[in-house]
């Protein structure tokens, strides 16, 4: 998967240097807890002792033919309508991005009806939505490869424009179904534990969704490779996020993963490219059932637990100030020596 995007190995010399720099700051060793490990992770991911916390959110949007089977409380048109909202600056993602100083690039990875041109929009031009995965594979091999490549190149472009952190968020009615199916097929997690309300199904709706997902999974039973799972279950935005994770890692950025669907993309990408793990930070624990199963499988300790289940990168943007604080700690905090403070006794 994306072999041309090679991910540099973490420098052990840099690790020692950054750990020493953190311990030289005016605080008892370890007293900034997770902020210290975040600072180290940012530095190692970026390959520099003074990491950059400027962030770009890739907002990956696409549609899903499986919505025809009643797996979402919302119609597919809402994907495009929300993308128009992103363009107008009115969505939660826009509000939070403005409040934390992150940029947003909207990626039309395969929306059923194309949005109008906009300076913040890039188009994949692959296909207008994934096929109905109950009837046939959601994507062809060429479509998966193109979506991975589109995401990887979009991420590299953001790093080249100056982002040290690439945040991954999405918009796609029906995409919790793809997320559940991918986590089931790639990681062997149980489908019933992975199936939740998504954007607002009631109890009967969740039961219907689980029935559909079981039937979809039965069409492609057993464990699948990350690539084959994306073919079978889609979606284009999830493949693009998986590609973006690999692309951003290859370009020496940290990757900030949003909620349930972005984590499914990370599960797929890290199964294919485990060497990217050093770059990946999980922003929050979503309220969507099954997110904790994915996070546990990844050995991830998300930064926030706020009961969020929106998507669109909202949780990643809310976690960003913690990363900014970690980078600022490394860059700006005085050392015992510079501040003339006595060292610890004993
Ligand atoms: O990020 C999450 O944890 C999350 C959890 C549930 C739903 N969503 C959002 O809701 C949409 C998918 O929900 P659904 O029910 O249509 O599959 C999609 O646009 C996601 O951004 C997002
Ligand atoms: C309104 C709405 C906004 C969203 N943002 C991300 N997923 C979403 C799903 C819905 C339904």
TrEMBL record:
It catalyses: 5,6-dimethylbenzimidazole + nicotinate beta-D-ribonucleotide = alpha-ribazole 5'-phosphate + nicotinate + H(+). Transmembrane segments: none annotated. The active site is at 312 (proton acceptor). Its EC number is 2.4.2.21. It is an enzyme of class 2 (transferase). One of its GO terms (biological process) is cobalamin biosynthetic process. Pathway: Nucleoside biosynthesis; alpha-ribazole biosynthesis; alpha-ribazole from 5,6-dimethylbenzimidazole: step 1/2. Keywords: Cobalamin biosynthesis, Glycosyltransferase, Transferase. It comes from the Bacteria. Pfam families: DBI_PRT. GO terms for molecular function: nicotinate-nucleotide-dimethylbenzimidazole phosphoribosyltransferase activity. Catalyzes the synthesis of alpha-ribazole-5'-phosphate from nicotinate mononucleotide (NAMN) and 5,6-dimethylbenzimidazole (DMB). NCBIfam families: cobT_DBIPRT, PRK00105.1. Belongs to the CobT family. PANTHER family: NICOTINATE-NUCLEOTIDE--DIMETHYLBENZIMIDAZOLE PHOSPHORIBOSYLTRANSFERASE. This is Nicotinate-nucleotide--dimethylbenzimidazole phosphoribosyltransferase. The lineage of its organism: Bacteria, Pseudomonadati, Pseudomonadota, Alphaproteobacteria, Rhodobacterales. The gene is cobT.
């Amino acid at each position: 998967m994306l072999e041309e995007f090679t991910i540099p190995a973490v420098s052990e010399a840099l690790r020692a240097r950054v750990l020493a720099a953190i311990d030289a700051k005016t605080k008892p060793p370890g007293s900034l807890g997770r902020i210290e490990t975040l600072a180290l992770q940012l530095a190692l991911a970026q390959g520099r002792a003074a990491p950059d916390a400027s962030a770009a959110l890739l907002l990956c949007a696409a549609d899903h033919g499986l919505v025809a089977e009643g797996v979402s409380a919302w119609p597919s048109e809402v994907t495009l309508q929300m993308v128009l909202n992103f363009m107008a600056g009115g969505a939660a993602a826009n509000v939070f991005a403005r409040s934390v100083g992150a940029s947003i690039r909207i990626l039309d990875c395969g929306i059923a009806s194309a949005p109008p041109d906009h300076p913040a929009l890039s188009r994949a031009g692959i296909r207008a939505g994934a096929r109905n995965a109950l009837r046939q594979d959601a994507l062809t091999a060429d479509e998966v490869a193109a979506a991975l490549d589109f995401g990887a190149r979009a991420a590299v472009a953001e790093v080249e424009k100056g982002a040290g952190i690439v945040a991954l968020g999405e918009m796609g009615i029906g995409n919790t179904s793809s997320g559940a199916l991918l986590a089931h097929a790639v990681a062997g997690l149980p489908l019933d534990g992975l199936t939740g309300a998504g954007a607002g199904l009631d109890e009967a709706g969740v039961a219907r969704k689980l029935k559909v997902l079981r039937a979809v999974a039965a069409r492609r039973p057993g464990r699948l490779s990350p690539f084959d799972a994306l073919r079978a279950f889609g979606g284009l935005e999830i493949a693009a996020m998986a590609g973006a994770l690999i692309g951003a890692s290859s370009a020496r950025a940290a990757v900030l993963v949003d909620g349930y669907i972005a984590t499914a993309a990370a599960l797929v990408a890290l199964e294919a490219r485990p060497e990217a793990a050093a770059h990946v930070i999980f922003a929050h624990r979503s309220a969507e059932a099954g997110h904790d199963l994915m996070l546990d499988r990844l050995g991830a300790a998300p930064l926030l637990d706020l009961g969020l289940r929106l998507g669109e990168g909202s949780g990643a943007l809310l976690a960003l100030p913690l990363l900014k604080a970690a980078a600022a700690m490394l860059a700006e905090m005085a050392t015992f020596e510079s501040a003339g403070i006595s060292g610890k006794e004993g």
